Amino acid sequence: MPRSVNSVAKRARRKKVLKQAKGYFGRRKNVWTVAKNAVDKAMQYSYRDRRNKKRTFRALWITRINAGARLHGLSYSQFMGKLKANNVELNRKVLADLAMNNPEAFKAVIEKVK
């Protein structure tokens, strides 16, 4: 009896990976073994960096809040402590946006907590 192989599924799997590798440089885009390794690595990076993105944005927001608070004579930690003490429930994303794009509103928040 002849050996049965599922060439349809095999071809579909390869096409899927090569489609994901579209836009890569050199053999990474059209040679199966190279493309498979490149796509696997890219998926690992994308999984990792979806988590890292949250960290980097939080760090950016903290930097912007700190810069805005220091213009009014407070450090970041003093400002956040006073926000908590006065039960002001604005998150860092909103505070950073105020500090960057709406300094008058940010100053009003600082005056409220001082």
Automatic annotation (TrEMBL):
<protein>
    <recommendedName>
        <fullName>Large ribosomal subunit protein bL20</fullName>
    </recommendedName>
</protein>
<comment type="function">
    <text>Binds directly to 23S ribosomal RNA and is necessary for the in vitro assembly process of the 50S ribosomal subunit. It is not involved in the protein synthesizing functions of that subunit.</text>
</comment>
<dbReference type="GO" id="GO:0005840">
    <property type="term" value="C:ribosome"/>
</dbReference>
<dbReference type="InterPro" id="IPR049946">
    <property type="entry name" value="RIBOSOMAL_L20_CS"/>
</dbReference>
<comment type="similarity">
    <text>Belongs to the bacterial ribosomal protein bL20 family.</text>
</comment>
<keyword id="KW-0694">RNA-binding</keyword>
<keyword id="KW-0687">Ribonucleoprotein</keyword>
<dbReference type="InterPro" id="IPR005813">
    <property type="entry name" value="Ribosomal_bL20"/>
</dbReference>
<keyword id="KW-0689">Ribosomal protein</keyword>
<keyword id="KW-0699">rRNA-binding</keyword>
<dbReference type="InterPro" id="IPR035566">
    <property type="entry name" value="Ribosomal_protein_bL20_C"/>
</dbReference>
<dbReference type="Pfam" id="PF00453">
    <property type="entry name" value="Ribosomal_L20"/>
</dbReference>
